[in-house]
Amino acid sequence: MTEFYVGYLPKAPERLARTIFRLVLALGGITVVLALLLAFAQGPFARSSFEYLQNRDYSGSLIDAPYPSLLTDEGRFLLVAPGKHGAADLVGGLINQRVKLQGSLIRRGDDKMIELVPGSVRATGGQASPPPLVDLGTVTLTGEIVDSKCYLGVMNPGNGKVHRDCAVRCLSGGIPPAFIVADAPGTVRTLILSGVKPREVLDFVAEPVRIQGRLQRLDRTLILAVARSGNRPAIERH
Predict the structure, then answer these.
(1) What pTM was estimated for this model as a whole?
(2) Which of 103, 127, 151 delimits the end of a domain?
């Protein structure tokens, strides 16, 4: 016989109560299992960091090929200003000189960047010249355009749809654009994009795109000089 529970009664019939209790336990167990599966299915955050307000002293050669950078014995550091701004206004007049500066380290793997302390860049005497640009040939690569500052460590994750609005603002403010690709073995590489203006890439941020250009190496930094078709860069959605 079917048992019914009327809300104003002090308790449900025993058989109905047992059934509901088992159902609640089963649903609770399924919820816990699904939560664990979803948690373990998420990829780990990248090994990136931003030493916010932990300013260090750096010295080296200041170059701007293709964006302001500091060449040191520890490698090359891209330079950016605080917030969503590039470093061009903070290093004007000191390009191709030996300098000292202060800033906070941003790092993702072997890729490094410094957020400059405004007013800290000063010449130390002596001229500097960038290392030779090595041409690695014409390529067509598929990947994702990101703003290098957030991607290298200021935000985590610093790419994908969730980061699109922030990336658009960073690129518009002069942060160097980067192109994230995977090589044949599956290793993710960060290429700095050159030959394009921010407004030309904003519509492609956080989407899979294909870019044609010349792959170059400056010291240990990979650069993709984007080819152009007429007045437009050779970028298309993939």
Answers:
(1) 0.79
(2) 127
